[in-house]
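Note to self: keep these together.
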Amino acid sequence: MNFLVEKYDSALKQTMIQLGSSEKLAQTRLKVIERVRAEHKKTNEKAAEEKEILRVKFEELEGKLKSSSAARKELVREKSHLEQKAANLEKEKTELVEERDAAVDKLIRERKRLRDPRGLEITRERERVEAAMVEKASRRFDRVRDHSTRLEAFEKAKNLYGQASGTKKCLEVIKASGTEIPQEMIDVFAEQEKLYEAEVMKLRVEPLSDSDLTLSPLVLPSRFAEERFRTSFDPYGSNVNLIGPETASWLVTSLEVVEEPSEEPLVDVTSIATEPVKSPVGSGFDERPENENLKGFPGKDGLEIGDTLDGEEDNDGIEEASLPRPAEEETIYEAGDTDAPPLPVVDSLASIPTRAEDPTAAATKSLDGQD
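Structure:
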């Protein structure tokens, strides 16, 4: 700005020199000075306005910087808080997983403890029924075999009697026709006829009764059989509808522990304890194919036993002896209609009796009564 003033002053001086002391030069000088001052003032005002605008913008930027710094500090504090919370949640999750695994292991052990005596009890009951079936069938077969043996001896004696009697009659007819036959020969066959007739009367065999040739179920008293289930039995056809669809779905659906989706795999509580119960070595229970029939009837609590020989003297009846399947669903998982029932309280299961009675005494009494 000073440069402009000096320039205008120099120009003014030159003008004054050129114009001299004329009034016109003075007026021109004043006008130039006023114009220069006006321009200078206008330039100063414009510079002041720009400076004020820059100051306002600077204050705004400074405020934004302070607010962004405060927000950054707040975000840092929030991040640290969230990290701490995530660490606590991870620790809590680990503890819950450990508690869940411990509860599942305890439940599996408890269920195995309850299932093993149940399986032993069912195995003993099955062996008792099989022994009774074998004994009853053996008695029937012995009677049939004895009848066949005595009938064979009777038929032999009867044939000999018929042979002796026929020979004697033939000799008598021949002698009556005029042919000479010694009487001693006829007397020999007469004695044989009397001898074999007495033997035939001695070995006379009564025919087998219809009960000896009739197949009927084996009837044994069992504390597992319940009369309330017999009303649903179909004695003339299939018993496939003895259990309801809900119970059937439990038999074919794997029961799993229900929990929120996570990275850990779901624990199948029932998959470990569904192994078949092994029978004692040498009993022959594992090798028998009919044992597979025990897996399909947990609802009716029994296995139909039929087509065994029986007699009227064995106190027979049209009934069915039933054997329950070792179904721990009935003792542990009776908890609702869902596919995955809640885990039962293990302490409450400890009060369930697990000791199985020895059924040999009952089997002996029932067999003695039937004989």
